[in-house]
Structure formats: structure tokens, C-alpha cells
Amino acid sequence: MDSSFDEPDYDYAASIAGRAVRSMAEQRIAPTPANFAVWYQYFAGGHDDLRNAIDLLIDHNRPFDARTNQDLFETYVAPQVSAVAVDTSERLHALMGTAREFLATAIADNHSQMRAISEVADQGKAGVDPKALVAQLMNELARAATKATQLEAGFAEKTRELDLIRDSLTRSEQRARTDTLTGLANRRALDEFLHKAQATADWGEPLSVLMLDIDHFKSFNDNFGHGVGDQVLRLMAKVLREKVRPQDLPARYGGEELIAVLPAADLADCAEIAERIRRGLAECKITRRSTGETLPNISVSIGVAQYRPGEAITDLIERCDRALYLAKGSGRNRVVTEAELDRTGAAG
């Protein structure tokens, strides 16, 4: 994703900037450079994923807290080039230079040895003592073997260095796709997984998502502090990871909301897994690390929805989100599927 801005004229840029600042003030978003970049991009247009994400948050009156703002910036705006990538590029250039030197040396040695052996052959035709020719030939072959061994050792060393670079890139890529607090996939990884799963689901394979949110999380934070709140989020992430299947993707959606994408699972399958998650979290005991005291049990509300072939992923998420809010509005600590949305709408 290219996060660079085009160079618009002054009046247009000032208009976009003004709208961004006003909206940030309305949402009580700190006017930091990162937050401003997000909202400037939002009003400048041309970034559908960012616009859909913010519109969904606004439509459901979600707070733009520090974590949500950071997620938006890192997922949709932040450049992907990091110090690790720059360092890796420099190391690769150095390695390629060394490899070229090795190959040039190998080619030169090969030519030299071919000439030496050719000279031995010419001496054989001239009637030189065969004993001396054999000794000379053996000497040339020994030199060639020594050079080959040295080159092989050099290549082996550089291969090990390439392995280290590959491992570093793998770890860097993993960090770029992981939420630092929960250890789950972040929004970038979630979006990639969803779009790949969508391609399969459009051919008829079921695809479902579940979204969970801690009940009364604000009061929990107010009473026990954000440090304990973070501990609860990590606990939620652990239970979510344990209860979904190996082929599923658990991720952090934003704030205290977590999400899981379940390929090859219909609505009933997803609801069953969601119920296991809800029960698992209800059974957890939370201990405050600083004092050792046992805190009140937590509960979660979970919404479940199934993908409809051909629809936009944002529509699927929106239905799942509505089911989550219906779960909260009908008593919390429960699982609600999109089927109940239809029944509620029909009853209304």
C-alpha cells in the first residue's frame, strides 16, 4: 500500500486538512501527526479500506481510543519500510558482491588449471618423461582440489548468512502482522486472510466470522486500571486461540474487540465454537499480579455471521457487528447469530 500523498493545490489541501481536524475534534482524537495522517487520507479519498473501517466505527459509535487510532495508522497509513528492511537490503548487497567475487575467482582458477593441464598434455606429446608428467598433473589436480575446497567453505559460510537473513525477514514479517499486546494477528493480517478466504467462499465453501467484546470493560478498567485491562485482553486472546481450530485465524479487531475467521464453517459450526469460547472465558479466574487478589469473573458477548457469496467483506463484518450489539443489548454474556437479526427485524 502506498501511503505517500499526492501534491494537491493549496486550497484543496487546506480544505481536506480542515475537515480532518474538525472530525478529529468531534471524535476527541488527539491531533498527533499519525492521527492527522489517518484522517487526511480518509477525507482525501482513494483509500477505500480505510474509509470503510472508519465509517464502520462511526456508524456503531465506537470510541476512537489510543489503541484504535494506532491500529488504523499501522494498518492503513504507516509505510512498510523499516530499519530491518534497510539493514537486510544492505546485507544482501554485500552478500551478492561476495558471491560475484567467488564466482569470478572460480572462473579464473578454472581457466588457469585448464591451461596448466593443456601444457602438461603438450609436454606428453613432446616426449617428456611420463613420470614427471604424472607428478605435474597430480600437483595441478591437488591445487584445483584445494581451491575448490576453499570456495566451497566460503559458499557454505555465505549460505549460513543467507539463512540468518531469511530468518530475520520471517521474524520481521511476523512482527508486522502481529498485534503487540495480544499476540494475535493484527488488522493487516486479518484483511489479507479474509480476502483469501473470500475467494474460496465465492465458489461455495462456507465462511463464517465471530466477533467478541468484553462486557462492561470500561468499568473494569476504571475499577482496576488499564494494566489489569491489558491482562484481561491477553487472557481473552489466549482462550480464543485455544478454542478455534488450527485453520482459523484469531485476530484483534480493535480496542477490546477480538475476531476470528473460520473457513469451511457454516453459521451453526461458528456459533458452536463461539459458545465454547464464551464458556471458556466465563470459567477463567483472574488474579491481580500486584496484590494476588482474585478479580470478578469476566463475560463476553459474541456475534456470529456467515459470508454470502458475492458480497463485500465489509457487509459480512457489519452483520457480525450488529449481532454482537444485539447480544449486548439483550443481556450480554451470550452468543447471537445473524439469524436472530432477521427475526428481530421481522418482529419489529
Short overview:
Helices cover 65% and strands 10% of the residues.
Tally of strands: 7
Task: Work out the radius of gyration.
Answer: 31 Å
Biggest sheet: strand arrangement: 2-3-1-6-7
Strand fraction: 5-15%
What's the number of helices? 12
Helix content: 55-70%
What order do the helices and strands follow?
HHHHHHHEHHEEHEEEHEH
- Poorly predicted tracts of residues: 1-7, 80-84
Mean pLDDT comes to 79
Report the major sheet.
5 strands, mixed
Structure description:
By secondary structure, the chain is an alpha+beta fold. The chain contains 12 helices and 7 strands. It has helices at residues 10-26, 33-44, 48-59, 66-77, 83-125, 130-176, 187-201, 217-224, 226-243, 267-282, 313-329, 338-347; strands at 207-214, 249-254, 257-263, 286-287, 294-295, 300-306, 335-337. The chain has a 5-stranded mixed β-sheet with strand order 2-3-1-6-7, with helices on both faces. Strand 6, helix 11 and strand 7 form a beta-alpha-beta unit. Helix 1 (10-26) crosses helix 2 (33-44), helix 5 (83-125) runs antiparallel to helix 6 (130-176) and helix 8 (217-224) crosses helix 9 (226-243). It is elongated. It starts with 9 loop residues before the first helix and ends with a helix. 26% of the residues are buried.
Write out key terms for the chains shown.
348 residues, elongated, single chain, alpha+beta, disordered N terminus, five-stranded mixed β-sheet, two-stranded antiparallel sheet
